[in-house]
Write a structure and sequence with these properties.
Chain A is mainly alpha-helical. In chain A, about 80% of the residues lie in helices and about 0% in strands. The first copy, chain A, is elongated, with a radius of gyration of 18 Å. Chain A binds a DNA duplex through helix 3.
Chain lengths: ~190, ~190
DNA sequence: GTCTATAGCTAGATAGAC
DNA sequence: GTCTATCTAGCTATAGAC
């Protein structure tokens, strides 16, 4: 067997950036192959089911990323709630590059793709909400209140990314991150 | 000349529903033609520049709809602010069919089509924000405060539509409409 | 103004050499 | 495991009859 030209890790990062900016239907296998330095046929060797499998792998990567960089951090009772929130907000900011990047999740919520990836999308969003719910509880909120606010954080991030993109200014996203902070830190 | 089989109005409504659910890259000319009852070639007769022109026409329709059913109503000083808000919230609810429908604007901020439709998207969102800013001012807010809240309404609607879609429940959207009401009506 | 037919192309996917 | 070459289906877009 020949040696791998590209590690799986680098592969996924390249693939994700294409899907993130062009969406599922907008990303051709040529685009995807070019982003990795491999040929189309080689991509099929790694992902026999083609674009669907590639996208699913990207979503698995995102799921893991969210678990590590959001959910677990927010749930870590060894850290003060203030500190947890601060770090996670920074992570979210970095993930979307300050609001420049489109969210992979949004890119896949179109009708034709929901059948394919709906379960993975739901899981990632559910985990995100669980993380922020844990944070709210640590801040002394009731579980019900914490859940409502947690859902709100997801809505604010997703919504502000759209508005930022369409209005070509990063301010709405940045302001929403601030609003999330204030939601928890001030009364 | 033969008679038109379909009026322009009916044409646009069919076309919009396809683009709304499948996105720009996800909508083929066959999809678009089928949704209208015309053949592909007939669509080209009505929209010589093809899919781009079709999409642009849909966005013009949306722009007009927003102007009439949101911006103008919110700015109408003959009506009490409470009343204006109530009616507009109902209109938004109907537009998205309670949260079932994807927003055309979102569908087009996605696939790297911003080069093609960015200006129209920006205009529609700007108008939306102007409308709600006028409402806020009528409620006694400062212009600055009103503008911030207006932008917030757009973020909440867009964000909650995504979350509703992904989580397959209409609750986030419905709760966000309520939150918008409370944003203006309660202190 | 609408249709059928088709050109020309690019998409996703596969075969087989190395 | 990666490559070149190629298949077929679907795409956008056009030509021309009615």
């Amino acid at each position: 067997m020949r040696p791998q030209k590209v590690t799986n890790q680098n592969l996924i990062e390249g693939l994700m950036s294409v899907i993130q900016s062009k969406g599922y239907n907008g990303s051709s296998l040529n685009d995807l192959a070019n982003s990795t330095g491999l040929q189309k046929a080689s991509l099929y060797h790694r992902f026999p089911k083609g674009k669907k499998e590639i996208t699913s792998a990207v979503l698995s990567f995102v799921e893991e990323w969210v678990d590590i960089n959001i959910v677990e951090l927010l749930s870590d009772k060894e850290q003060k709630p203030n500190e947890r929130l601060k770090i996670v907000i920074e992570n979210i900011d970095n993930l979307y590059e300050g609001g420049e990047k489109i969210c992979v999740l949004r890119a896949l919520t179109m009708d034709n793709n929901l059948d394919l990836f709906g379960n993975q999308l739901k899981k990632i969003m559910t985990n995100w909400i669980i993380g922020f719910t844990n944070l709210g509880i640590s801040f002394g909120q009731s579980e019900k209140e914490a859940k409502i606010k947690a859902e709100q954080t997801l809505i604010l991030v997703q919504g502000s990314l759209i508005v930022s993109k369409a209005m070509s200014t990063l301010k709405p996203f940045q302001k929403s991150l601030l609003a999330i902070k204030n939601m928890y830190m001030s009364p």
